[in-house]
Automatic annotation (TrEMBL):
<dbReference type="GO" id="GO:0032040">
    <property type="term" value="C:small-subunit processome"/>
</dbReference>
<dbReference type="InterPro" id="IPR003107">
    <property type="entry name" value="HAT"/>
</dbReference>
<keyword id="KW-0539">Nucleus</keyword>
<dbReference type="InterPro" id="IPR011990">
    <property type="entry name" value="TPR-like_helical_dom_sf"/>
</dbReference>
<dbReference type="GO" id="GO:0034388">
    <property type="term" value="C:Pwp2p-containing subcomplex of 90S preribosome"/>
</dbReference>
<dbReference type="GO" id="GO:0000462">
    <property type="term" value="P:maturation of SSU-rRNA from tricistronic rRNA transcript (SSU-rRNA, 5.8S rRNA, LSU-rRNA)"/>
</dbReference>
<feature type="domain" description="U3 small nucleolar RNA-associated protein 6 N-terminal">
    <location>
        <begin position="9"/>
        <end position="93"/>
    </location>
</feature>
<dbReference type="Pfam" id="PF08640">
    <property type="entry name" value="U3_assoc_6"/>
</dbReference>
<dbReference type="GO" id="GO:0030515">
    <property type="term" value="F:snoRNA binding"/>
</dbReference>
<comment type="similarity">
    <text>Belongs to the UTP6 family.</text>
</comment>
<keyword id="KW-0698">rRNA processing</keyword>
<feature type="domain" description="U3 small nucleolar RNA-associated protein 6 homolog C-terminal">
    <location>
        <begin position="317"/>
        <end position="580"/>
    </location>
</feature>
<dbReference type="Pfam" id="PF24892">
    <property type="entry name" value="UTP6_C"/>
</dbReference>
<dbReference type="InterPro" id="IPR056907">
    <property type="entry name" value="UTP6_C"/>
</dbReference>
<dbReference type="InterPro" id="IPR013949">
    <property type="entry name" value="Utp6"/>
</dbReference>
<protein>
    <recommendedName>
        <fullName>U3 small nucleolar RNA-associated protein 6 homolog</fullName>
    </recommendedName>
</protein>
<dbReference type="InterPro" id="IPR055347">
    <property type="entry name" value="UTP6_N"/>
</dbReference>
């Protein structure tokens, strides 16, 4: 072991001599570098190898290389002077360390990527290319690594053939990976663009370019083949097929783009004539190029609002035409149409908001006459119209879905916003609770209790008491337990708070927030009852001792603040936590204890 380390240090002699001779490092600094490198060398030749040891050594050498470069500039030594003996030697050492680490820890893909990133920064692109190839032997199942390698070959190495080879190899391994097909498709388009740019650089005449149109690449034949292979391999996915159109519009300067777009939509129309999603995508075709239109208009400082409005109208006409003629499920197509309208409303500018709201209201109304709207769509509809119109819609919705708690909650909220009298609200809540599913909803109970707290003190207590009945739904009981305690604390005496705690702590389900809120209430008093606090903690531990590290940490915090408790008592609480807590919470408990220095 020692002989290997000594040999490695002796190999560094020339590097040290030259660094000292040109004044990069003093003798004391060189001795320190030797000591540090010796320590790192011993770590990496241990029998049991650790990745952190390699990374620490690499980090040290990288910082040393940066220091050398900074001192070169400061001493005005130039970038080349003795570079092979010093800078290059450090780079080779870092590369050796990376190779050794990657060989021993092959499965760590981040290690490979760090190595490649280092090589890129050193402009050692040929080595980076070979490392990509080696990494892919181990991580060939990671499609994104194939894409990264292919992009590197094309963009950095300017080797389209190598990039194409990588894409094709990747697709043989993972033929059903959509992202690979889309990136390969984009690459072939970029290659066409590269050839056209080369023609311009070579200053070829227009006639020569026209005579070269038989070339399959320039005519987009390869691009077309990639698309057909993709849609044959990955079937029944119209969104995937439509993704090719979005990529094509990024290259709208090519003459073959429009014909290929037409082919893609023909595939959608013919192959997926009974697919609702495909028909929806066909309807949205006028807006497929919207993002590019907006970007170009922004550059030219033009307003495209009117043009976008025309395209949106075309999309709506397409949807309505398909709803009249299409053989697909009308319900699903209507739902997609409504989703489109809501999406456009959300994207609309403030100046167009009113018009979009009017359009959405009209289309929702038309849809409700022809199909059964979902509860989600009713809520969307209510959210976009004015208050009076919303009241009419929500009544229709609750009549259609009498057991939907979210709709009843919205109906109650609209009445509350209208500031109607408490009697009307009570009547409406009673009507809602006539449906068992609604009565079990914590959503509607929270809404009505929030209202009652502000308007009717007596009714609030009645509601809380009703929610805590043993025959009541457990989810509502659990949600409102802590809320009840806090309300009593705000409106009544501590004696009544304690009575409520004693009553509810015996009832299931147990609530951790209920116990913690009660403990905080007791701790906030000027005359603290430590016995009651301890009892509350112990009761909470019965239910949540295994699953809540926060409970034990709060218990320890309280014990430390309560000076009458000795160190032995605190240690016993800590020891109990270690024995009771489950694995994940135990780890978190130990970490928090270390941070707080509770142990």
């Amino acid at each position: 072991m020692a002989e290997v380390v000594q040999r490695h240090l002796e190999d560094m002699l020339l590097e040290f001599e030259q660094a000292k001779r040109i004044g990069l490092f003093t003798e004391a600094e060189i001795k320190k570098i030797v000591r540090t490198r010796r320590r790192h060398e011993y770590k990496i030749i241990r029998r049991t190898k650790e990745k952190e040891c390699y990374l620490d050594y690499i980090k040290y050498e990288t910082h040393l290389l940066k220091l050398v470069q900074l001192r070169r500039e400061k001493l005005k030594l130039g970038r080349i002077y003795k570079k092979n003996e010093i800078d290059l030697a450090i780079k080779r050492r870092i590369e050796r360390l990376f190779r050794s680490a990657c060989h021993r820890f092959k499965k760590d893909v981040n290690l490979w990527l760090t190595f490649i990133e280092f090589l890129k920064k050193q402009y050692d692109y040929s080595t980076a290319s070979s490392i990509f190839t080696t990494a892919l032997h181990t991580h060939g199942n990671k499609y994104w690594l194939w894409i990264m390698a292919a992009k590197f070959e094309f963009e950095t190495m300017v080797s389209p053939s190598s990039a194409r080879s990588l894409f094709q190899r990747a697709l043989r391994i993972k033929p059903n990976e959509k992202k690979l097909w889309l990136e390969y498709f984009k690459f072939e388009l970029l290659y066409v663009e590269l050839i056209q740019k080369r023609q311009l650089v070579l200053d070829r005449t227009k006639q020569e370019i026209e005579n070269n149109e038989d070339d399959a690449i320039l005519q987009g034949k390869i691009v077309e083949i990639v698309f057909h292979n993709a849609q044959t391999t990955i079937e029944n996915d119209p969104i995937f097929i439509c993704s090719f159109v979005k990529i094509l519009y990024e290259f709208s300067q090519f003459s073959f783009v429009e014909s290929l777009v037409n082919q893609i939509y023909s595939v959608l129309k013919d192959k997926y004539s009974s697919n609702v999603l495909a028909q929806s995508l066909i309807a949205q075709r006028p807006l497929i190029n919207e993002r590019k239109m907006i970007d170009e208009a922004t550059k030219k400082e033009q307003d495209v609002t009117f043009m976008i409005a025309i395209l949106e109208q075309q999309v709506r006409e397409n949807y309505e035409q398909q709803l009249n003629n299409s053989i697909v499920d009308k319900n699903e197509l209507w739902n997609l149409y409504l989703d489109f309208c809501v999406q456009r409303l959300r994207q609309a500018s403030d100046s167009n908001k009113t018009e979009h709201i009017s359009i959405c209201d009209r289309i929702f109304s038309l849809a409700s006459e022809q199909i059964s709207l979902t509860s989600e769509h009713y809520l969307e509809w209510v959210s976009i119209v004015d208050h009076n119109r919303a009241k009419v819609i929500i009544k229709k919705a609750t009549d259609h879905y009498p057991n939907d708690a979210s709709l009843w909650n919205k109906r109650l909220s609209l009445l509350i916003e209208e500031s109607v009298d408490c009697k009307t609200i009570k009547k409406e809540f009673k009507l809602a609770c006539g449906n068992s599913d609604v009565k079990k909803s914590s959503l509607i109970w929270n809404t009505i209790i929030d209202y009652a707290q502000e308007n009717d003190h007596k009714w609030t207590e009645e509601l809380f008491e009703q929610s805590q009945m043993e025959s009541f739904d457990l989810s509502v009981t659990l949600q409102l337990k802590s809320k009840y305690l806090q309300w009593v604390n705000q409106n009544k005496s501590i004696k009544q708070v304690r009575q409520l705690f004693d009553k509810l702590s015996c009832r299931i389900p147990a609530s951790l927030s209920f116990y913690m809120d009660y403990i905080k209430i007791e701790q906030s008093l000027s005359n603290i009852d430590h016995k009651r606090i301890k009892t509350a903690f112990e009761q909470a531990i019965i239910y949540f001792g295994k699953t809540s590290a926060d409970l034990w940490l709060a218990y320890l915090d309280y014990s430390k603040q309560h000076r009458s408790l000795d160190f032995i008592t605190i240690s016993r609480i800590h020891s109990r936590a270690l024995h009771i807590l489950e694995s994940d919470e135990l780890k978190r408990f130990n970490t928090e204890c270390a941070l707080k220095n509770l142990t």
